[in-house]
Amino acid sequence: MISSFMKKYFIKQKMMRIVILSLIPVILSSIYFFGWRSLVLLFWVTLFGLGTEWIYEKIQGKKVSEAVFVTCILYALTLPPSTPIWIAVVGIIFGVFFGKEVFGGFGKNLFNPALVARAFVYVTFPEPLTIHWSKAATGFPGGFATYITETIDVVSQATPMLIFRETGQMISLSKLFIGNVSGSLGETSAILIILAGIYLLLKKVAAWQTMAGVLIGFTSLSGMLYLLGNPQIPNPIFGILSGGFLFGTVFMATDPVSSPRTKEGKFIYGFLVGIVTVIIRGYALFAGGMMFAILIGNIFAPIIDEGVNYIKKIRKEGEKEVTA
Question: What's one Pfam family the UniProt record gives for this protein (predicted)?
Fold first, then answer.
């Protein structure tokens, strides 16, 4: 019955189902670290995100894409645990409509719709998105025994990147690796995100060129600035494990629609995202930077592909002339 319903109203997208499967451990960890409110937030975001796309596609006489579920999950996992539900809902409606549907629907959008939604609420509602955080639960049963964990109201207990920016102190790498630190719902546990990334690579759903480009671009620039003694730049390992960097690298930057199509273009695009992340984190007003870096990368994705294809064309013409 469920299968026939999905077939009737949704575009079948096996790739998206694999991404959702890889996100299940991350969703469960968000409940463990921050309580059941993460699941409530995810429910309302998915309901309104799905509804927004259904209304638009219904008018166009088309089916809803299964990709909308991925968009909703990714967006919800980038939100702080205490984000007001109405703000989260406004964000996903904006992201699905203006980040995807106005371009013509799935496969035609220039920007990652989940990041469009996140950027919109980040800029429009800065206080709940940048000030109010929740403590990460530890031990058993952790957040599974509460609706939402205790709220944090001091900088010394905020997210790793905010603490570094305000005090210069760095949280232990072991905590960042496990994930029992304050932050957005799905961005804290490095180990789970890394495992999800490996799974996506094995399933050939995510491009390794993009991930490698992001890591190399970020590590090279942040490492150079760190060695030069720039106090605004932490060591590269800390930077990689904090601030949603890994989450963005694995799930957002690799979006097949808003990133380049060519293999060379994917690497260049990833390298650009990594470099821009370092610049924004170190010199802009934002403690994170990954979100805006990917959106900037989305702008250049088509141009990068055009450049790569043009160079390939010139090389082929040159080879023909030599053989002639």
Answer: NQR2_RnfD_RnfE
What CATH number should be reported for the domain holding residue 301?
A: 1.10.3430
State pLDDT tens for residues 200-234. 999 999 999 999 999 999 999 999 999 998 888 88
Taking the whole predicted model, whether its pTM rises above 0.90 is answered as yes
Q: Is residue 321 part of a domain?
A: no
Residue 10 has pLDDT above 80, yes or no: no
| 114, burial (CB in 10 Å: exposed 0-12, middle 13-18, buried 19+) | buried
- Number of domains making up the chain: 1
Question: E strand or H helix at 100, and its extent?
Answer: none
User: What residues have CB less than 8 Å from 264, skipping those under 6 apart?
Assistant: 209, 308
**Distance (Å, whole) CA 47 – CA 23:** 18
